[in-house]
Amino acid sequence: MAVVFVSPTKMLSSLSRRQYDSYTYSTSTTLHTSPRGLIHRFPNLRLNNLYTRCSITNTEVFNNIITEEVHHDSSSDASSCSVPILHLNAEIHDTESANLLVEGTFVDMILTTLPILSEEEQDVIAAMPAHPAGLYALYASCLAGNLVEQLWNFAWPAAIALLHPSLLPVAVMGFCTKVAIIAGGPLVGKLMDLFPRVPAYNFLTTVQAAAQLLSAAMIIQAHVAHASLETSVLMRPWFIILVLAGAVERLSGLALGVAVERDWVVLLAGSNRPIALAQANATLSRIDLLCEIAGASLFGILLSKYETVTCLKLAAALMMWALPVVIGLTWLTNKLSSGVLDRAKCPQTCCRTSSGGPVPHVDNLVDISIDAIKNGWDEYMQQPVLPASLAYVLLCFNVVLAPGGLMTAFLTQHGLSPSLIGGFSCLCALMGVGATFMSAQMVKKLGILKAGAAGLILQASLLTMAVAVYWSGVLSQQTALLFFLGFIVLSRLGNMSYDVVGAQILQTGIPPSKANLIGATEVSIASLAESIILGVVIIANDVSHFGFLAMLSLLSVVGAAWLFCRWLANPTDVQRSLFSF
Fold first, then answer.
1. Is 330 strand, coil or helix?
2. Minimal CB count within 10 Å: which of 59, 77, 209, 484?
3. Eight-state DSSP code of residue 262
4. Chain segment 501-518, per-residue pLDDT in tens
């Protein structure tokens, strides 16, 4: 053990570079009796007072170390031991020391003069998307795809309603598509999480376009043959093909929507850039609503001027034109975002099932479907934002007091012209566009959770007034009908406000690696809710039962508002860590 004496002449900063290339050690046989240099108890032999943060430069090195006997007089240490004593000559040249001090000062200056961003500068960074060019290409792709989808969503119920004075055919098609989504939604979400994003997206885009073209061909066939939809029509070949094609079209549209809204937009905007993500969500909602306005207006105007078959042929031509445009823009999105859509989402877990085993073989679709449904339900029920998602599911029970196939069929049977029905759908979509701007101000003033509650309460209040007008018994009058439709139009403000806010709540609480699986499972559960109410419509398919169906829709919206407000009042610890209550 060596006794080391360090002369505390000059101590350099620990940030300086330690230069050990020219060390010098000189030994001495003289035992210094400095209080800091003397070790009083040899049995322990610990250097308690040695400071290691020291830099030594330019000293002379001697390799000879002299050992001398050191005797301690303490009675407790009767034995003696040989201790090599080392003396360090800490003579440091002034010029080299000055240089080192300059270097240490420079490092200190770097560490202490790092720029601290102001709140405004942090907001600017948070509002800047991670891949802005790719995000704009995604907007263009959604614009082309949603325009065709929204036009078809308005076209097929209007074309079928012109064949039969009942809600039955529209309800049957809607019910079958919801059942297909319930059964196949988790499977499609699982496959979307397993396979590469861009090829899977383009494949489903092609499948959706083919299903739309087949559906248009079946409806054209029914109009050309002057088929009258009676109860027996449910067993006719063309109607069965129409139902199957509609189920495939909706299932593909579900997967495409979940991929864009829950996965792609988060990757392109940046999950750690909340302002950019909120703006991207609002932009996607505006694109969807503007496409709904354009699609309903276009087909409504065409239907009022031309025959139904001609309008369906024009819609089919638009579908064929949009398909290569969407595929090309999807490829461009991935190209402009440096291939971020091709990167693996969960390399450790994406190839495992819910039980931890390997994914079944692709040919065994039954095993994949069962595991996907089980895993999807488990993950869905364990998500920390479950009440917000359940509120969205309850809103899906409202298929009557909302623009859609049943409302279009009801207004058609009520004698309204196609242009007026299209105008109603356009106004509902315009309210939705306004809600995307209103929701941003609500979030700024109330916070994201209270803004969601305000949207739900607003929708429930306005729909209550709409149902009151209907049950007043004066709906046959033009003024009462306009008030009824006006309250429904205004209720879309609350509905779309929660749609925008709820999307960001779910994006915040759901892990990115499970976004497609949980998102598809959520849509499947929502489809289950819609299928239940559509099953009721199939039973009560007469137009005179519309008031009863409207009451069921109202109760679902009121239940959604109550559930969300109850969650807001009693959050868990995990929810408190995600949001500010």
1. helix
2. 77
3. I
4. 888 888 777 777 777 778
pLDDT at 366: 64
Q: What are phi and psi of 87, to 5 degrees?
A: -115, 125
Q: Using the 8-state DSSP alphabet, how is residue 360 labeled? A: P
Question: Which residue do the tokens 């088929």 mark?
Answer: 227
Length of the chain: 581
Identify which of 407, 549, 380 has the alpha carbon closest to the alpha carbon of residue 467. 549
Residue 403 burial (CB count, 10 A): 24
In whole angstroms, what is the distance from residue 504 CA to residue 483 CA? 33
Q: Which segments of 127-264 does DSSP mark as H helices, in order?
A: 132-161, 168-194, 197-224, 237-258
Q: Single out the residue of 405, 407, 324 nearest to residue 148, CA to CA.
A: 324
Predicted pLDDT at 8:
41
**163-215: per-residue pLDDT in tens?**
776 777 888 888 888 888 888 877 887 777 778 889 989 999 999 999 999 99
Those residues with Cβ within 8 angstroms of residue 195's Cβ, 6 or more apart along the chain or in another chain: none
Strands 67-70 and 81-87: antiparallel
Which residues pair with residue 66 across a beta bridge? none
Measured CA angle at 19 (ends 16, 25), to 5 deg? 125
**Tens-digit pLDDT profile for residues 377-405:** 888 898 888 999 999 999 988 988 988 87
Residue pair 495/455 in contact by the 8 Å Cβ criterion:
yes
Distances (CA, A) of 528 to 183, 371, 562: 10, 19, 21
> Residue 178: left if φ>0, alpha if ψ -120 to 50, beta else—which one?
alpha
Dihedral Cα 12, 18, 20, 22, nearest 10 deg: -50
Task: Give, as one character, the DSSP assignment of residue 513.
Answer: G
Note whether 221 and 160 are within 8 A (CB): no
SS3 358: strand
Q: Kindly calculate the radius of gyration of the chain based on its CA atoms and give it in whole angstroms.
A: 36
Other beta carbons within 10 angstroms of residue 472's beta carbon come to: 12
Residue 437: count other Cβ atoms within 10 Å of its Cβ: 13
Determine the 3-state secondary structure of 221 from DSSP.
helix
Q: What is the pLDDT of residue 356?
A: 46
- pLDDT, tens digit, 9 for 90 and up, residues 155-164: 888 888 787 7
Distance CA 147, CA 295 (A): 6
- 432 CB-near residues (< 8 Å, 6+ apart): 285, 289, 292, 492, 493, 495, 496, 499
Q: Which residues pair with 358 in a beta bridge?
A: 352
SS3 state at 87 = strand
